[in-house]
Input
Amino acid sequence: MKKALIFLLTVLTVFTLFAGCAGKDGTSDVNTKPGSTNDTQQHDAESDQPGKLSELTKVTVSEFRGISWAPMYIAYQLGYYKDVNLDVELLKIDDGPNCFRGMHAGESDFCILSQEVALKAQEQGMRSTFITTMLDTRYYAFAATSDIKSVADLKGKTVFASTPGSAPYTFCVAVMEEAGLKIGEDVTLVTMDKGAVVAALSKGEVQAAFINADNFKEADNVEGLHYLVDTRKAEDASNYLNSDTFPAEVILCTEKFKNDNPEVVQAFVNATCRGLTWLQENKSEDAANTIADLFSGMKKEVIAEKIDIMKGAFSKTGYISQEGEAAVLDFSMRAGIITKEIPYADIVDMSFVKNAMDAGLVPQNK
Output
């Protein structure tokens, strides 16, 4: 009887040990659930990152939720910022200029932006520093209804050119002015929700509009709609950007924040560079699955399509070259945004990206 009891207790003990390792369906749960021993060890290894801060530091990024900054969102969703002891808060604002103003007002530490707004402010004494780029070139287009054969045909017509002061607005105005049109006199500009732009074109409510990765796919499906300018084409990039390298979509901070907090900036750039590398090494569908929670209301397959469209433009290194910056400055001067060149070293600091390269987080710049 005593032996039987000991045997029964032994069986129950063994059963309990295995039950603790089994999932509800009876299959083993070891090494599969987040927080399991192996998963924790793997995360700890990934957490031992170059540039990791000694203590958890909170930073805020003002942003307007665009596909162009997918690498940053990937880094956020995959915990790369946590790996370097950064507690990142994404402060969603309606557009780039307001993100920039908020950062300089002290509402955020970093912001995402197309360069033009910061260049104009720099010339006026509001100093910023570009710490990395998300795109090596710019995919912008100017689409029109079937009756508009050239930009000059827009005289007397209504056009959507995005938010005044923004990079898309500057681009569209530059295209029209180059064709001899005077804004407000020859062409009427209207504002609307970006999600309604293609519908407005298809109904003839506007005769031309700014188009980019957010609505290329939708615009392509509208019969008769065509592109007057499309910088995805080498000839249009050459004509309107004067370069095939145009790193205008950047992440920046104020010059003061960079000078006062170089370790924080380095940690942020390192984590973001990991996001760039991950995007290059994985499928658009996987990237869409990763960031979908941040784009509520947008189907995963739509996000994947947008990322796929942009795949050739995403930077492999995050590095802003002097040649690329010169192209952005040249465009900004031609568009009347700035009146003179801004020295590269006055607004671009690639030392953080170079450190990320040395750490193997992105390829060495070539």
Residues 262-281 form the longest helix (20 residues). Confidence is low (pLDDT under 50) at residues 1-45.
